[in-house]
Amino acid sequence: MKRTVIAVGAMFALTACAPAGYNGADAGAAEPVAVAAAEPSVTADPEASAEPGASASPGAEEETDAPLPEGVELTDSLTGKKFPRMGSAVVNQDGYILYRFDRDTNDPPSSNCDGQCAEVWPPALTDGAPELKGVSDDDVGTITREDGTRQITLDGWPLYTYIGDKKPGAWKGQGVGGTWFVVNPDGSKNLECLPKGTPKAVAPPSKTESNESDSDYDY
Questions:
Q1: Residue 69 carries which DSSP code?
Q2: What are the φ/ψ torsions at residue 90 (nearest 5 degrees)?
Q3: Tens digit of pLDDT for each residue in 4-39?
Q4: What is the pTM of this model?
Q5: b/e map of 128-154 (b: 16 or more CB within 10 Å)?
Q6: Which of left, alpha, beta for 127 (phi over 0: left; psi -120 to 50: alpha)?
């Protein structure tokens, strides 16, 4: 192969192309995206490089994996689907849509979302064996984050969920800050359904709990 926290925060405008009364697409009604090169199940590279931001490399030792942060779950699968009005997207095993961040890089693959950013946009972490459907294994990889955990990449772009999405199939993270976008099954940005204006992200849980202002939070 080449290459997840509940918050109280700012209210979002509905996406401009969302249906009236939109409350998130029904993930169960979405149809899989057909990708000829996709396999029902694949085994990821055994381990990512020990260097933060590096892509996974075959033959690395599995014991170098850092323990997952408490309460964080692995992303067990990536599934390409089509949603009404929005088009294609990639969801995890729970049906939550995955995003990519413009401040990251894909060549070389690297994440620039940590700290409070990662509280709002939890990285899609893996143990190296996500199941793929409608996503080509040739496009999937991993990077090693600064905390030693491994994050899934798609065409080199690190993947994330959004805590502002309260139910499977919702895409309230689309266009947030002008830098966050739903990811297509090939790793490109989904630009079919963009919000009016530039939505602001919900506040990080740490700020909400401490009653701090989130005025300096721009992810």
A1: P
A2: -120, 135
A3: 433 434 444 444 565 333 444 444 444 455 443 434
A4: 0.72
A5: bebbbbbbbbebbbbbbbeeebbbbbb
A6: alpha
